[in-house]
């Protein structure tokens, strides 16, 4: 049996985050190729953690800074190890390299953390992003992690372009793999059977919180023109400051965790997502298209999703544009139907699993068969793995010794 080990920063929660859904998609890709999958994580499981045993994935709790991980990974002896985010590669990558030197090491970035941080810095200082914003400690750590791995998965075409054109990274160590969709759901409620606006996003994710703040501001004007409409704001891990925005008189309703996203999306008429900054792809917009829900968002929200196609709704540059588009999409049935069809087209032409699965697996097989050559060509990866640059390794060893 071919063995894949995934080391996660958290246990997947597909009902809470797009990252959780993304992880299940990756697991499915490898299982379809006959891989036996083990998911390892040092975090505690929550009530909302996905039961991975349902999809025949073994789970194992592991301990940070402990040699017990070395023993476990050596016993499994995987042919592939996938790290969920660069922080996990920092913590466990060197241990995997020592115990399983012939295993292909893959980094799933989820999104480029340094890009999101650079945009957040510029946004909160109310200015345009400049190149220096990229060069943070997060940038240096994430870049080093990418170079240490044999392959890094980027979820957005924009991030692929940024990595290769701006930072001159060799495309051979990168792979564009977006969200994947088997099919769209065209048997959904019609325009006249839907009502209200909806927004969704994990409240612990800072870009989502900033999006909610903008919605609170925009909703005043939208509500005046559509007095019967409500805005239902869903999201896991509702904070106290978010609860304070709940206002039943204004129909700005903080709903908390979404028990069934499919039902919510199929009953709503328009998704609102004035996302001010971020990175990667936006899971809420992806799922909305799958379920026939048009959306109004920003260029940042739609980034990397629609290519040369038309958006399934509207992309607004300013507050007034956003409000006007939201009202038009909500009230004009023909415009709404056209937007819905555009969403289906985006899914069909840009996110179908069949567009990526075979090529991705072929890439993995190529790495397995040519691993030594590939690593020699990635000479920067060998440099950053030199013992003089492995501070995380020796810090971990120090903590391990201290704990004894």
Overall description:
The protein is α/β, with parallel strands linked by helices and 404 residues long. It is built from 18 helices and 13 strands. The strands form two sheets. Strands 3-2-1-4-5-6-7 form a seven-stranded parallel beta sheet, sandwiched between helices. Strands 10-9-8-11-12-13 form a six-stranded parallel beta sheet, with helices on both faces. Helix 3 runs parallel beside helix 6, helix 11 packs across helix 14 and helix 13 (319-331) crosses helix 14 (333-350). The longest helix has 20 residues, at 206-225. The protein is globular and about 65 Å long.
The gyration radius over C-alpha positions equals 22 Å
Mean pLDDT: 94
Which assembly state applies to the chains in this document? single chain
Tally of helical runs: 18
**Which secondary-structure class do the elements indicate?**
alpha/beta
State the low-pLDDT regions, or none.
Answer: none
The span between the termini is 36 Å
Query: How large is the share of residues in beta strands?
Result: 5-15%
The main sheet orders its strands as 3-2-1-4-5-6-7
Overall geometry comes to: globular
Mind summarizing the main beta sheet? 7 strands, parallel
